[in-house]
Design brief:
The protein has a single domain, classed as Creatininase (Rossmann fold). The protein is 48% helix and 12% strand. The protein contains nine helices and seven strands, in the order E-H-E-H-E-E-H-E-H-E-H-E-H-H-H-H. The strands form two sheets. It has a five-stranded parallel beta sheet with strand order 1-3-2-6-7, sandwiched between helices. The chain has a two-stranded parallel ribbon with strand order 4-5. Strand 4, helix 3 and strand 5 form a beta-alpha-beta unit. Helix 4 packs parallel to helix 5. The protein is globular, with a radius of gyration of 18 Å. The protein starts with 13 loop residues before the first strand and ends with a helix.
Length: 243
């Protein structure tokens, strides 16, 4: 018999959606009833970090939240609006229109609601205003079709509040990458000079100040904020059921 892909963290089991068998998904849904859709991008993150950093970050945060509250975590969707490609012209970036991202977001929300999930979370590691607005538009369309389902859109920098500022390829994002996939960071590749947005695609604190420990602190703050909001939604649902 193969090993179970369901993690039985008490009291809420969770798992990676793509790795679960049908009965495992049904079991998790009956007990936890949350679906997480990590949302990222494929874009330049300076010389030291991978193109898929935003997706790695979003998936890692979703998995950490699911370990606390249960649910299923879908594979990350690497579709970013307003990447650094049209913004500053850096290569190796794939850019999508807001209309297309909104349509795909709505499709995921609608189909997960149709599958019976009560809470659907779109958590994005890519957060230009135009991108977040596209996800919000998709969630809004889903709310019209499924008014009794909770559709949530979070950006990871929003969950961290004032503790750590969002950036692009800076110390905050690089710390997450060092936490989730340190083998794919090469700080030695950075030039021996101050980094700039125009020259390097870096916005925020210098990535050389990043660390795995900082990434862990960032994750702790983000997860705590997310768990508090999910627990509040669950408490409200329980109250409504008892009335």
């Amino acid at each position: 018999m193969g090993a179970s892909r369901v993690e039985n963290s008490k009291p809420h089991p969770w798992g990676r959606y793509a790795e679960l068998r049908p009965e495992q998904i049904s079991s998790i849904r009956e007990q936890s009833n949350i679906a997480f859709v990590p949302w990222g991008a494929l874009e330049w993150h300076c010389q030291h970090a991978p193109i898929g950093l935003d997706s790695t970050k979003a998936e890692g945060i979703c998995l950490a939240i699911a370990r606390r509250v249960g649910g299923v975590v879908l594979p990350a969707i690497p579709m970013g609006v307003n990447t650094i490609k049209p913004f500053k012209g850096f290569p190796h970036s794939i850019d999508f229109s807001g209309d297309l991202v909104a349509e795909v977001a709505a499709a995921f929300c609608n189909q997960l609601a149709d599958e019976g999930f009560q809470i659907v979370v779109l958590l994005t590691g890519h957060y230009p205003p135009e991108h977040v607005a596209a996800l919000e538009e998709g969630a809004s369309k889903a709310r019209e079709a499924y008014p009794d389902i909770d559709f949530i859109v979070w950006a990871d920098n929003e969950l961290m509040g004032e503790a750590y500022k969002g950036d692009h390829a800076g110390a905050t994002e690089t710390s997450f990458q060092l936490l989730f996939d340190p083998s794919n960071v090469d700080l030695e590749s950075l030039p021996d000079r101050p980094l700039t947005l125009d020259g390097d695609g870096v916005m925020g604190e210098d990535p050389r100040d990043a660390s795995e420990e900082r990434g862990r602190r960032q994750l702790t703050i983000a997860v705590a904020a997310a768990v508090a909001q999910i627990e509040a939604i669950r408490d409200n649902e329980d109250t409504n059921k008892s009335q």
